[in-house]
From TrEMBL:
This is Aspartate/tyrosine/aromatic aminotransferase. SUPFAM superfamilies: PLP-dependent transferases (SSF53383). The keyword DNA repair does not apply. Residues 27-393 form the Aminotransferase class I/classII large domain. Its cofactor is pyridoxal 5'-phosphate. GO terms for biological process: L-phenylalanine biosynthetic process from chorismate via phenylpyruvate. Belongs to the class-I pyridoxal-phosphate-dependent aminotransferase family. CDD domains: AAT_like. It comes from Maribrevibacterium harenarium. It comes from the Bacteria. Keywords: Aminotransferase, Pyridoxal phosphate, Transferase. One of its GO terms (molecular function) is L-tyrosine-2-oxoglutarate transaminase activity.
Length: 398
């Protein structure tokens, strides 16, 4: 039955986790997959999460099925986090949200929903984008197109080229995927003014924005990071938002995310949401409960909520501090390349500009694990490895 099948390579990013784990070099450095790490190189469980889990152990009374959307009381948390407490879209019932297995689960449901209900829609993604975006939408038979985004010369956004491409080639009903903040993989975000321009264009062309909000809190703040998304949501008739709790609650393996649909009217939103429910049932039936219960427990307990906000701030400040240190220490090595752009990038990642050859040399000769694209997970840098890392980069770059 399976004789004709050829093995395929695994996901290159996830393969880095295994390669790093198996590397015996005590100096090894993992800057691959996007998980937050503390100065000891551990991906810690947040104190707010630990405390919430203790409360859950003491109070949980059942593990009965929840239904396709997960816990009903979780949806308002998704909406408040994304749009802000008193947003009119929430009050008018124009947004419906479901718990999903991580942000990836949300994107997969969105892809199935688009494929089945908007069959002519093409998905427009930034060049580059998170590698899994393309796989998820292709697996749902949605055509994926690219718009220019990252400018390797200025380390900024090729905004004029981006808009020119969208102007020339998108058609009404196409889906435009934007990263809410902390663009993965580049760390280069759209400015608020650029969100305003894109909002006008989306409305004029009749596009459906799909916003991937996986790193809320890691850029400039939990509220600040949603400024562009909120501006657009308040001015466009329809929107899909896939969000993740993996990073800002540090509950990666618990797989907790959300998919929200915003529509012109409450009835339209409910109708679309019922179809999303069907897509979920046919996909994974219903999401796992644990992560969402953790988030809910924290969200509804004032003491844990403040502790969690402080922990998000601390993670963000640590990463931004590391960015500045990287810039200073790289410059101090006398390396020929100007790395000052790293301090301006935001979120977990930095598109370092290292070539594939340089990345491979760092891996083979120094046990430093960076994605093939040159994307570094800045959170993997620490006081213990920063000098070793900067010296190694200086050696391979020259
Ligand atoms: C990443 O880009 O490193 C994360 O989003 C983890 C993943 O699933 O790829």
């Amino acid at each position: 039955m399976f004789k004709h099948l050829q093995a395929v390579p695994g996901d290159p990013l996830l393969a880095l986790i295994v390669a790093h784990q198996q590397d015996p070099n005590p100096k090894k450095v993992d800057l691959g997959v996007g998980v937050y790490k503390d100065d000891e190189g551990r991906c810690p469980i947040l104190e707010s999460v630990k405390k919430a889990e203790q409360i859950m152990v003491d109070n949980e009374v059942t593990k009965a099925y929840l239904g396709v959307y997960g816990a009903a009381e979780f949806a308002p948390i998704i909406q408040e986090l994304l749009l802000g407490k008193d947003n009119a879209i929430i009050k008018e019932g124009r947004i419906q949200s479901t718990q999903t297995p991580g942000g990836t689960g949300a994107l997969k449901v969105a892809a199935d929903f688009i494929s089945a209900n908007l069959p002519d829609a093409r998905l427009w993604v930034s060049d580059p984008t998170w590698g899994n975006h393309e796989s998820i939408f292709r697996s749902a038979d949605v055509e994926v197109c690219h718009y220019p985004y990252y400018d390797a010369v200025t380390n900024g956004v090729r905004f004029d080229e981006m808009m020119a491409k969208l102007e020339a080639e998108t058609k009404a009903g196409d889906v435009l995927l934007l990263h809410a903040c902390c663009h993965n993989p580049t760390g280069v975000d759209l400015s608020f003014e650029q969100w305003q321009v894109i909002t006008d264009f989306v409305n004029q062309r009749g596009l459906l924005p799909l916003i991937d909000a996986a790193y809320q809190g890691f850029g400039d703040g939990l509220e600040e990071d949603m400024a562009g998304l909120r501006y657009m949501a308040e001015r466009t008739p329809s929107m899909l938002i896939a969000n993740s709790f993996s990073k800002n609650f540090g509950i990666y393996r618990d797989r907790c995310g959300g998919l929200s649909v915003i529509a012109e009217t409450a009835t339209e939103a409910k109708n679309a949401f019922s179809i999303i429910g069907q897509a979920i049932r046919a996909n994974y039936s219903m999401p796992p409960a644990h992560g969402a219960t953790v988030v809910h427990t924290i969200w509804t307990n004032p003491e844990l909520h403040s502790l969690w906000e402080a922990e998000v701030t601390q993670m963000r400040n640590r990463i931004n501090g590391l960015r500045n240190q990287l810039v200073e220490k790289l410059a101090a090595t006398g390396v020929s390349k100007d790395f000052s752009f790293i301090a301006k990038q935001r979120g977990m990642f930095s598109y370092s500009g290292l070539t594939l050859e340089q990345v491979r040399t760092l891996r083979s000769d120094y046990s430093i694990y960076i994605a093939d694209t040159g994307r570094m997970s800045v959170a993997g840098v620490s006081d213990h490895n920063i000098d070793y890392l900067c010296d190694a980069i200086a050696k391979v770059v020259g």
